[in-house]
């Protein structure tokens, strides 16, 4: 029988952790976007957000099904990440519709970029799933359009939303660092092994440069200063 990466217990634990954190992240994204829809100023905005929420739930189902195919209980795989992700969302609860949009685009975008980086170190099938889940589902265009229109109507919003975006990036980085520190399997995935090279200090520096540049690009797209 041909061996796969999942025959390595350390690798299996890391891949399951990655799928578990992503699954819970998508489940909470569905909940948050559905909740944000209640604040939508128009019926069209409400419908757009409902469609995005449905897409997030579809992503959750894909990740859940992948865990089941690996013989893993999805609820158990998600459980270690409930507390840190819930804490992140508690600390970054938006005060209005626009803050909710910026959070979905900027805060979630940075976290997703981080997990895409980790996906570089997993098997091809898992990596393809992660990249599919994080492909733009129309959220970017919708958020950019609404936020830029609001700032054009009231330029003073730009300063407040820029500060909010900076707060989100700080919280998102802290969240990612906490999860990586608490889950030895994910840290080991980044560090590599004898047959799977990981990141050295220079590569880690380049990774954070990419994360920062992507964040700056998102803020610029919204018409905000990073």
Can you describe what's shown?
77% of the residues lie in helices and 0% in strands. Helix 1 packs antiparallel against helix 5 (97-119), helix 1 (9-36) crosses helix 9 and helix 5 (97-119) packs parallel to helix 8. It has one domain (9-222): Ferritin, core subunit, four-helix bundle (Ferritin, Up-down Bundle). It contains ten helices and no strands. It is an all-alpha fold and 226 residues long. Pfam families: MiaE_2. Residues 10-192 form the Ferritin-like domain. This is Hydroxylase.
Topology:
Blueprint: H1 9-36, H2 43-69, H3 74-78, H4 82-91, H5 97-119, H6 124-133, H7 139-153, H8 157-182, H9 184-191, H10 201-222
Helix pairs in contact: 1-2, 1-5, 1-9, 2-6, 4-8, 5-7, 5-8, 5-10, 8-9
How would you describe this structure in keywords?
Ferritin; globular; mainly alpha; 226 residues
Q: What is CATH's topology name?
A: Ferritin
Average of pLDDT: 86
Which CATH-level-2 architecture?
A: Up-down Bundle
Percent of residues in helical segments? over 70%
Shape: globular
Give the N-to-C terminal Cα separation. 52 Å
Number of strands: 0
- Note the run of SSEs as H and E: HHHHHHHHHH
Unreliable sequence segments: none
Structural class estimated from helices and strands: mainly alpha
Summed up, what is this model?
The chain has 226 residues and is mainly α. The protein is built from ten helices and no strands.
């Amino acid at each position: 029988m041909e061996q796969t990466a999942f025959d390595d217990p350390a690798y299996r634990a890391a891949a399951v952790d990655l799928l578990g954190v992503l699954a819970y992240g998508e489940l909470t994204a569905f909940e948050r976007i559905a909740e944000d829809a209640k604040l939508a100023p128009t019926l069209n905005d409400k419908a757009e957000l409902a469609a995005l929420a449905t897409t997030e739930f579809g992503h959750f189902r894909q990740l859940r099904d992948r865990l089941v195919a690996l013989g893993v209980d999805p609820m158990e795989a998600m459980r270690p990440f409930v507390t840190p992700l819930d804490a992140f969302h508690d600390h970054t609860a938006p005060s209005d519709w626009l803050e909710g949009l910026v959070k979905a685009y900027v805060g979630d975008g940075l976290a997703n970029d981080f997990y895409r980086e980790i996906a570089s170190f997993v098997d091809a099938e898992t990596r393809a799933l992660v990249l599919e889940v994080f492909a733009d589902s129309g959220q970017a265009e919708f958020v950019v359009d609404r936020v830029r229109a609001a700032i054009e109507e009231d330029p003073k919003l730009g300063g407040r939303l820029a500060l909010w975006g900076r707060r989100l990036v700080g919280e998102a980085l802290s969240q990612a660092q906490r999860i990586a520190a608490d889950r030895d399997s994910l840290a080991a995935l980044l560090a590599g092994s004898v047959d799977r090279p990981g990141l050295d200090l220079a590569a880690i520096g380049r990774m954070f440069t990419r994360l920062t540049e992507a964040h700056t690009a998102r803020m610029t797209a919204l018409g905000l200063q990073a």
